[in-house]
Amino acid sequence: MSSELKAIIEDCTSELETDRSIKGKQKTVRWFILFLIALVTCINYIDRAIISLAAPNIQADLQIDPALMGIIFSVFGWSYTFSMLFSGYFLDRFGPRKVYTVSLIFWSVFTFMVGTAKSISSLVAYRIGLGAFESPSIPTNAWCVSEWFPKKERATAVGIYTGTQYIGLAFLTPVFTWIIITFGWNYLFYIAGIIGILIGFVWYGFYRNPREHKWISQEELNYIKEGGGMIGTEEKHPFSWKRMGQLLKHRQIWGMFIGQFSIQTTLFFFMTWFPSYLIDEKGMTMLKTGIYASIPYIVAILGTLIGGRCSDWMIIRGLSTGMARKLPIIVGLLLSCLILGGNYTDSPNMVITFMAIASTVTGALLADIAPKGMVGLTGSSLYFVANIGGALSPLIVGLIISATHSYAAALTFISVVALIGAFAYIFLLGKVRRIEITE
Asked: How many other C-beta atoms lie within 10 A of the C-beta of residue 429?
């Protein structure tokens, strides 16, 4: 081989390696940030949902009937919902790094304290604290995705962290039930609380906005900015009733309000009453319930990942943002109506199939619609309304069970609410575009 040809090959190889290096730098940091978001989201949903697995034992230990247990489930939702009125303000003022750190550490402390509860009043108090400090989670996730991801990758990112909210519940539910059976329900909350506190310090140590992150390359920063990412440089708008009034004039907001209300109503049924449903209505043992209760979450992981990827794929293919963002959510809500099928079969496998299909809902609308500089306020307003559904769902289901001594009417209620949510996205939401707020 001549020296000239060898030099040419070496030059081409060097250029190829340089190109790969640039592409590697461009793709690395934002996906690491997404891993952090997913990790926090995973422990978030474990901490709020493990009470559903412990509920039969808690009811037995503290002598709690279904109606009262429904109230205990519900107080988390009410605390979570009303605290969102303040979480958006703190998020817009202090940013996701500080807000998520404080939030995560304190909700983990309250998770730990649930395990120490010796009375109904203490259990209620700790659940209220848990709900209050978990309230910034969803608006903060939306903020981080808006900063770190271009528009064409946003639904994939949301699908990934939404999917991970079910990972712990999907794959660790049998482990959780084993802990309850072997050591007692209290230890489940002790372990989850300690893990959450440690993750809080990890978040503070590694999260920054793109402009401030030491690991990011200029190539990746340009890629995010040119793709519509907010990258942490936008002017923050302080809260005002005028801006809030302008926000509420848009039908997009009301369509999301009703749609997310429906999603949370369905989701909170799974995170509260579903294990008790399998035990009381279908006659499963505690250990078997732990195995079966994990299946809807496994399907939910697949649904959110597939839905998010399909949404971004449609945008890349040139479909409208409205079609790409709304279609996966509408399909998920319509499938949620199949939860009603649990009334018509005694086969555990069929019941799980209906429940699993019902749990596949995804979307990235908030990051596409929220006005610039108002992601925290828009997100907290949206999820304030949406989580009224999460607060009402376990309460209404508990009252229905107490009145009818059956879950049949409760499943009908969940199905009807899901159908209303699908109609809101189809007929009310309208065109998906970023809302412009004038001063």
From this structure: 24
Per-residue confidence (pLDDT) for residue 209, from 0 to 100: 83
- Choose among 149, 37, 138, 25: nearest CA to 83: 138
Of 314, 402, 398, 413, nearest in space to 363 by CA:
314
Per-position DSSP letters for 210-233, written without gaps between them = TTT-TT--HHHHHHHHHTT--TTT
Question: E strand or H helix at 207, and its extent?
Answer: none
Cα 369 to Cα 275: distance, rounded to the nearest angstrom = 36
| pTM of structure | 0.66
Secondary structure of residue 312 in the 3-state scheme: helix
Which carries the bigger pLDDT value, residue 353 or residue 74?
74
**pLDDT band of 108, cuts 50, 70, 90:** very high
CB 355 within 8 A of CB 339: yes
The angle, 0 to 180 degrees and rounded to 10, between the axes of the packed helices 185-206 and 167-183 is 140
- Residue among 359, 338, 353, 336 nearest 421 (CA): 336
pLDDT surpassing 90 at residue 128: yes
Show the DSSP H helices in 135-207 as ranges: 137-148, 151-164, 167-183, 185-206
